[in-house]
Amino acid sequence: MIITLITDFGSPYNGIIKGVIKTIAPNVDIIEISSDIPPFDIKSGAFVLYSSYKFFPKETIHMAIVDPGVGSERKAIAIKTKNYYFIGPDNGILIPAAKEDGIIEIRETKISLPYISSTFHGRDIFAPTAAFLAKEKNFEKIGEKINKFNDLEFFKLIHKDFIECEIIFIDRFGNLVLSIKDNDIDLSNRKLLLEKDNKIYEIKYVNTYANANKGELIILKGSSNFYEISIREGNAKDFLNLSVDNKII
After folding, report:
1. Domain spans of the chain, in order of start
2. What is each CA distance from 111 to 20, 32, 245, in whole angstroms?
3. What is the pLDDT of residues 93-105, one digit of tens each?
4. 156-248: CATH homologous superfamily?
5. In a designed cystine with 131, which of 24, 94, 114, 160 is the match (CB 3.0 to 4.6 A)?
6. 75-95 pLDDT, tens per residue?
């Protein structure tokens, strides 16, 4: 059984989570997808989970924890989908991936360590829940079934002459991942203009970075089929001074 881990925790917290899992379920394999989601950035965490979950074997348990509401009344949930399990806070981070795979049921987990801190539910609730599921393979015993959850959708509106979308992730190269995919609209034959701070930027569509000149502002289809605004061998985030959740028209 595989458990994956996506958090904004960094060191040493992910290591502690792995220790809890291994104590309960010694034979499980733990794969850390990311420990450096920007702090409190639920949308970026949701994108990383959405773009990675399907590349793992069926029945993998995916943990995604970006949890600014830790210690509050927000629920700790486990989701069973057609092919996977998802565990994390009820703040929307799990939902785009779970919806795509097909939600079967959602339960509020009651599994925890004997002591639950108000600041580290990754260690005290989510890790024991994932380890319990990996060891016992009994989803129904995790907790009570629930029907309501906090949703999260990547915003997009596609009009005849313009597109409204948002930045949902920025990678370490400064590429701006947008909330529109290639199956939403074909941008390859359109003239693309971006207005920012009373300036108009023309964005060239390319199939690969090799089709652009160094320093050129471009848009292309990324590896997860979302469109990305980029600068070849540059940083679009810094050049345009944009961040996650900024709307693009």
Report:
1. 2-146, 156-248
2. 13, 22, 33
3. 999 999 999 999 9
4. Bacterial fluorinating enzyme like (2.40.30.90)
5. 24
6. 999 999 999 999 999 999 999
